């Protein structure tokens, strides 16, 4: 196959169908007739000598060849972007952008702290942060829509590289004047007597906590649940009860005197990891690589406080 025949328009249409899983949805997004998109995809399939999609009841899913092509095209586009940024840096314009996606726990205080440190050394770079669920973080990285993903316990994918991984056990967060604030460590049985604030069931914190309770035969019913972690944290800070989170989530808060973060001695609550993800096979632009290195070094600097 002559790679020069893979026209930009056809590849752009192809990626939109991969993203939306439907020619009609891609058509609406691109404002292009479905027949034109279909023709371009057929042309690509003819030139490649392979089917790029499998037609299923829920829509169009990339075939093995389609996945390879999508990964290749995304990587090539990111490489072109990196080249332009490096040329601009040589010309002393120092333009650039670092695109981040993160689960909420790391987006509250940890990443804003890193962004501040990073921008102090890279004043010509802009940073964009998208807070989303674990699966969405992985998807955004694998599709080249962000440069770096921050997540926990993600499902491995061949198109995603794990740049760093660190343990992120679940801790109890209480106000400084809570009856448990002076304790160095807790057991689940210590928590029973106090109001508890928990995230919804789709989160790793809630799933691991429920597993620990089931193993211990302990029934702990939360008085407050939310899909917004910051609401749970502020509930605890205001003296409402106990919230659960990783130490990293609150490590860089400026009101440290208001709370205590206490380890919980349960095996399940220690089976949690945070990870830095990038697109596999991609040469990272200088700014992106610098942010990865800053984040990696911060993973090893823990400051747990138990009172």
Automatic annotation (TrEMBL):
<dbReference type="InterPro" id="IPR050950">
    <property type="entry name" value="HTH-type_LysR_regulators"/>
</dbReference>
<dbReference type="InterPro" id="IPR000847">
    <property type="entry name" value="LysR_HTH_N"/>
</dbReference>
<keyword id="KW-0804">Transcription</keyword>
<dbReference type="GO" id="GO:0003677">
    <property type="term" value="F:DNA binding"/>
</dbReference>
<dbReference type="InterPro" id="IPR005119">
    <property type="entry name" value="LysR_subst-bd"/>
</dbReference>
<dbReference type="Pfam" id="PF03466">
    <property type="entry name" value="LysR_substrate"/>
</dbReference>
<keyword id="KW-0805">Transcription regulation</keyword>
<dbReference type="InterPro" id="IPR036388">
    <property type="entry name" value="WH-like_DNA-bd_sf"/>
</dbReference>
<dbReference type="GO" id="GO:0005829">
    <property type="term" value="C:cytosol"/>
</dbReference>
<dbReference type="Pfam" id="PF00126">
    <property type="entry name" value="HTH_1"/>
</dbReference>
<keyword id="KW-0238">DNA-binding</keyword>
<feature type="domain" description="HTH lysR-type">
    <location>
        <begin position="1"/>
        <end position="63"/>
    </location>
</feature>
<dbReference type="InterPro" id="IPR036390">
    <property type="entry name" value="WH_DNA-bd_sf"/>
</dbReference>
<protein>
    <recommendedName>
        <fullName>HTH lysR-type domain-containing protein</fullName>
    </recommendedName>
</protein>
<comment type="similarity">
    <text>Belongs to the LysR transcriptional regulatory family.</text>
</comment>
<dbReference type="GO" id="GO:0003700">
    <property type="term" value="F:DNA-binding transcription factor activity"/>
</dbReference>
């Amino acid at each position: 196959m002559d790679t020069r025949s893979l026209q930009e328009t056809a590849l752009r249409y192809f990626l939109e169908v991969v993203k939306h899983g439907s020619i009609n949805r891609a058509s609406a997004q691109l404002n292009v007739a479905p027949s034109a998109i279909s023709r371009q995809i057929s042309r690509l399939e003819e030139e490649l000598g392979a089917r790029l999609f499998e037609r299923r009841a829920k829509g169009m899913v990339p075939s093995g060849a389609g996945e390879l092509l999508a990964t290749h095209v995304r990587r090539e586009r990111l490489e072109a972007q990196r080249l332009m940024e490096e040329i601009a840096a040589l010309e002393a314009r120092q333009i650039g952008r670092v695109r981040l996606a993160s689960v909420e726990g790391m987006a509250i205080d940890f990443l804003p702290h890193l962004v501040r440190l990073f921008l102090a050394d890279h004043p010509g770079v802009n940073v964009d942060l998208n807070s989303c669920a674990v699966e969405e973080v992985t998807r955004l990285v694998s599709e080249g829509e962000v440069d770096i993903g921050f997540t926990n316990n993600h499902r491995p994918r061949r198109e995603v590289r794990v740049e760093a991984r660190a343990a992120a056990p679940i801790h109890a967060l209480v106000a400084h004047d809570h009856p448990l604030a002076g304790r160095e460590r807790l057991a689940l049985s210590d928590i029973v007597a106090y109001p508890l604030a928990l995230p919804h069931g789709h989160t790793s914190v809630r799933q691991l906590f429920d597993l620990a309770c089931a193993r211990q035969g302990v029934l702990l019913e939360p008085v407050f649940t939310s899909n917004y972690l910051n609401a749970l944290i502020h509930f605890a800070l205001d003296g409402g009860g106990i919230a659960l989170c990783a130490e990293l989530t609150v490590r860089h808060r400026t009101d440290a005197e208001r709370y205590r973060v206490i380890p919980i001695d349960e095996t399940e609550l220690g089976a949690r990891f945070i990870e830095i993800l990038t697109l596999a096979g991609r040469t990272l632009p200088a700014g992106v690589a610098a942010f990865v290195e800053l984040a990696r070094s911060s993973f090893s600097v823990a400051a747990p406080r138990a009172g």
